[in-house]
Amino acid sequence: MGLIECKGICKRFGEKVALDNLSVDIPKGKIFGLLGPNGAGKTTLIRIINRITIPNSGEVLFDGRPITQSDVEKIGYLPEERGLYRKMEVGDQAMYLAQLKGMSASEARKELKQWFVRFGIQDWWKKKVEELSKGMAQKLQFITTVVHKPSLMILDEPFSGFDPVNAELIRQEILRLNAEGATIILSTHNMESVEELCDSIALINKSRLVVTGKVDEIRRRHGNNNIELIYTGGGKVKDVEPVFKVLSDEDNAGRHTAVLTLGEGVTSNDALRELLGQDVIVNSFKELIPRMNDIFIKLVTQEEA
Fold first, then answer.
1. Same domain, 253 and 192
2. pLDDT at 177
3. If exposure means fewest CB atoms within 10 Å of the residue's CB, which of 50, 67, 204, 217 is most exposed?
4. How far apart are CA 242 and CA 254, in angstroms?
5. Model's pTM, two decimal places?
6. Nearest by Cα to 156 from 39, 41, 83, 78
7. CB-based contact 55:61 (threshold 8 Å)
8. According to the model, what pLDDT value does residue 305 have?
9. Nearest-CA neighbor of 280 among 260, 299, 302, 297?
10. Degrees (nearest 5) of the Cα angle 256, 261, 267?
11. Is the pLDDT of residue 303 over 70?
């Protein structure tokens, strides 16, 4: 059972169908990637989970029961559309948002001071929000999203606007918060971050669920049965029908990098046995598993064809 279970969610805005009978489970204590092109329905689903909008049909369960407003108080939500009160002082803004989530003033001040030090913005407490750079403002919004230690964090494009150094800082904080028990929904177009951070994903396109499951399993499922072989020796790898065919073979001063495609039903061990019978020395032998970026493009393109 997931921490969040979305069952048969349908949502229409007039004639536009935003979500079409969508069901997805978000496992407790994991980092879950919510993926899809712009306009696919991701933000609508997030708003339904947060009870900002109500579905036309279907239900959302939180820890096995229909989600309530008190459950929403256990959620930290960082929307893609950022917004801060520009004329407020940074510390006052952070305190206000923390107390909206039920923290006492003393508790909020203590936790915020620690976060400000961790993010290197401790000198900005008394400055105006409008004086912050975009990256500084992003840090502040991330802090106010997670400071009350929510059991569920929904982060919509959390790396947007960050340089590589600060993006890595946010990645490390996401991993730390997850290690401490938080369930995290990560909505992003950054497929590298999906592979690095997410245990499972759901891909939505045109209001419908296209694929869901563990990242490793999805990558393997969409593989094309190719093997990368690095070898040396006096010979050259030859086709062994129907076990494998050599698609490419590059020679770099006697060190070859070849790509083999396996025949239907052939295992990696079958291919390796055949290679050991050839006049080559196998240095490296590994499956070529497609990247999530390639799978994303392939699935979305198929849907639109």
1. no
2. 97
3. 217
4. 27
5. 0.85
6. 78
7. no
8. 54
9. 260
10. 110
11. no
